[in-house]
């Protein structure tokens, strides 16, 4: 289950899964101000998560989930032969850039994805950028997810337009 910020919640040793229930207790978690509330669906009872109960709730950070996703796309790239031969860093970065160029072209032409038609071409190509970054960062042992979080936090304290940059 995810709280209002999208974090995965575990209650004790049982994961509260998407759909809102543990292995033996159906329910949903909702946000109530700064407090989480666990609401049992079967009879409408509501339990406020107290400070004491909060100590038994494990919040799994989103960066762990994204890191796991990056690991998964890296595994797929390996299985499909994309790492059979070593690749220079510059080549890997150029391939990331090529996906950005494809995203620009998809947006300019208002394309629909050829491979996943329920998405726009722009969405597909931006996904390809992230997939390539995830694959490369996993291959190289880079902490890109953690760096993204740190950089986003750093940017909160920067001046308007980072001190007067035009773009």
Describe the structure in your own words:
The protein is an alpha+beta fold and 167 residues long. The chain is built from 6 helices and 6 strands; from the N terminus they run E-E-E-E-E-H-E-H-H-H-H-H. It folds into 2 domains: 8-60, no CATH class; 63-162, Orthogonal Bundle (Helix Hairpins). Strand 1 (8-11) and strand 2 (14-15) form a beta hairpin.
What are the key terms here?
globular, 2 domains, 47% helix, single chain, 6 strands, 167 residues, alpha+beta, Helix Hairpins
Radius of gyration: 21 Å
Number of helices: 6
What's the overall geometry? globular
Spatial order of strands in the largest sheet: 2-1-6
What structural class do helix, strand and pairing data support? alpha+beta
CATH class of the largest domain: Mainly Alpha
First CA to last CA: what distance?
39 Å
Strand proportion, as a percent range, falls in 5-15%
CATH architecture of the largest domain: Orthogonal Bundle
Q: How many structural domains can be distinguished in the coordinates?
A: 2
Largest sheet: 3 strands, antiparallel
Q: Give the low-confidence spans.
A: 8-51
What name does CATH use for the topology of the largest domain? Helix Hairpins
- Give the % helix: 40-55%
Structure at a glance:
The protein has 167 residues and is of the alpha+beta class. It has helices at 51-54, 62-79, 89-108, 121-140, 144-156, 161-164; strands at 8-11, 14-15, 27-32, 35-40, 46-48, 57-60.
Give the secondary structure arrangement, pairings included.
Blueprint: E1 8-11, E2 14-15, E3 27-32, E4 35-40, E5 46-48, H1 51-54, E6 57-60, H2 62-79, H3 89-108, H4 121-140, H5 144-156, H6 161-164
Antiparallel strand pairs: 1-2, 1-6, 3-4, 4-5
Helix pairs in contact: 2-4, 3-4
């Amino acid at each position: 289950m995810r709280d209002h910020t999208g974090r995965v919640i575990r209650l004790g040793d049982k994961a509260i899964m998407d759909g809102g229930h543990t292995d033996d207790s159906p329910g949903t978690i909702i946000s109530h101000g700064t407090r989480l509330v666990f609401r049992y669906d079967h009879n409408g009872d509501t339990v406020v998560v107290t400070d004491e109960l909060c100590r038994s709730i494990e919040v799994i950070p989103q960066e762990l989930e994204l890191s796991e996703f990056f690991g998964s796309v890296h595994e797929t790239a390996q299985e499909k032969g994309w790492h059979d031969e070593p690749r220079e860093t510059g080549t890997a970065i150029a391939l990331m850039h090529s996906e950005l160029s494809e995203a620009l072209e998809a947006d300019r032409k208002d394309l629909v994805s050829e491979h996943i038609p329920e998405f726009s071409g722009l969405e597909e190509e931006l996904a390809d950028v992230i997939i390539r970054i995830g694959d490369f960062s996993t291959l190289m042992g880079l902490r890109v997810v953690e760096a993204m979080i740190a950089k986003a936090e750093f940017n909160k304290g920067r001046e308007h337009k980072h001190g007067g940059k035009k773009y």
